[in-house]
Write a structure and sequence with these properties.
single chain, 144 residues, mainly alpha, Arc Repressor Mutant, subunit A, 6 helices, 8% strand
């Protein structure tokens, strides 16, 4: 039997669950050398999408240009990304993830996924796991 939707409490429950899980995933991968959540997002975008101009990267990450500039400078200093002249327009720079950046991203994601896989296996039954997968697909659709 389906229940009536209470927009305020249902949306609050979903938001609270997503935020709490995100905090827990960050905590599971947290160590002093791990990139920040913003840095991981940027590295993941560059890994998925390939090298891109700063304007496109800022838009993809929802960052203001000033915030992107600081983050890019820090990640470049750590050797996780590199900037090079755009071959189509030498006035612009293209930002790319380095080998070290991919390794840092993989290490962080591996720890998070390990914890999540264990938590799912230990705390959810088969029906709940299927429901979680369906809900995850729906959340990804909402995030577009």
């Amino acid at each position: 039997m389906s229940r009536a939707i209470d927009r305020d409490s249902d949306s609050a429950l979903v938001a609270r669950g997503v935020m709490r899980l995100a905090r827990r995933l960050r905590a599971e991968a947290a160590d002093d050398d791990a990139p920040s959540p913003a840095a991981l997002g940027l590295l993941a975008t560059l890994h998925r999408e390939g090298p891109m101009a700063g304007v496109a990267l800022a838009a993809a990450e929802g960052l203001k240009p000033q915030s992107l500039t600081r983050l890019v400078a820090r990640l470049e200093g750590e050797g996780l990304i590199e900037r090079a002249p755009d071959p189509d327009d030498r006035r612009n720079l293209v930002i790319a993830i380095t080998r070290e950046g991919r390794l840092a991203l993989r290490a962080s994601m591996r720890e998070r996924r390990r914890w999540l896989a264990e938590a799912i296996a230990e705390r959810l039954d088969a029906d709940e796991r299927a429901t979680l997968i369906e809900a995850s697909e729906l959340m990804l659709r909402l995030a577009l």
